[in-house]
Amino acid sequence: MKMVINGKYVDSESGKTFDVINPATGAVIESVPRATEADVKSAVDAAVEGQKIWAEFPVWKRAEVLKKFLQLVEVNKDDLAQTLCAENGKPIREAQAEIGNIPIGFSGFMEHAKHYYGSIIPQGTEQGQDTNLQLITREPIGVVACVIPFNFPCDLFDQKVAPALMMGNAAIVLPSSDNPLTLLKLTGLLCEAGVPNGAIQCLTAPGAVKEAAITDPRVHLVTLTGSTEVGISTARLCADNLTHTALELGGNDAFIVMEDGDVDLAVEELVWGRMYNTGQVCCASKRFLIHNSLKDEFAEKAVARIKRLKVGQPDDPDTEIGCLISEKAAVKVEAQVNKTVEQGGKIILGGHRDGAFYEPTVIVDVPADADVASDMEIFGPVVPIIGFDTEEEAIAIANRSRFGLSSCVFTRDQKTAFRVASKMEAGGAVINGASFFRAFEQPFGGYKDSGIGTEGVFSTFNEMTRSKTIVLKNIF
Length: 476
Description:
Pfam families: Aldedh. By secondary structure, the protein is of the alpha/beta class.
């Protein structure tokens, strides 16, 4: 498979490639070009010119092009889902659902763009402005580098590429080197639908080569979803050119069950909020703070419910838990679980690794000062249970983390629910549901080390445009 640069499928300038591996089987799926800095320069050159052409398309016409793209996605949805399943290791049902999200995400941005209006500051709103009228418009920011992670490549493609294009920007897609194939195919479909050459491109650029796109002064916005460490290093690189950044980063979300919480509901939400995508979710619930009076019941029911999940090959339609993105990722989860046990936790389910597969794991008796109770984000199907006695104690443990992406609380008392939700230092708080909640419409983003800016139909256009004030002086 080739890269997409300036409307063409191309090899790397160097001719070098790298393999994309099926993490469940270890088999090579496909080889892709290993982009060079020269390839990046060619892509940015094309983006600068393509953006000018695309920006001349009126909003309604941009939407028509993206409608054609959605028709092509519908025709190719089975192939896209199979590709995503193979390169990602997520269960085929989840891969199909993620492809099914593309028309939801794109349509939301397409429709909102038609109602993304400017504004007017009328005359006389302040002293000395009695004869002046100020018109505030929004213009494309320019070239947008879309750095997309492995865990939900298509969902994040929707969140970044759709708004970039609808606002008249050029988008350079930089997928994870672990699984770039589905995004290469989606980029090709956008070209086929009629997005002009250069306005949409996709580079397979591992490692430091991505930095060439991030640091090019002709790139006006870097929108990145990834780890906090990568986000901080990206922000430093962007600072040299004052490049705009939108960063959605790590999370270690607290899942709080109060003394009056519904344990059965909480356990069902645990399955959704922790086991989906084999636990590889930024806003997954990762720290389970359970009132000590319910802790044993919760652990027992969680184990029983998780045992019912089918672990298997991702392409099996009955599989509910697949593998992690790589054996390297599974080894890291294994080490983190072992560390949690060394710090006092006790495994009552799972705890074993087989290649890229890591068993769903429940750990009880986790001390409140263990690493996982604050800043150690485990990106896998692991449930560390931490006990507490008071509301204040639960909130203190939850807020001790440097992360603040999302959070949740289970209680039958709505006053308690809103009080705890308001005190959580996080960008989201779910009441009686897992913290894994992300609608396309919502402004999604975190506090503290979980990121800068928000993403979603509600807010992304503000990130991807510049404000311009046109003054009609002495018009009255």
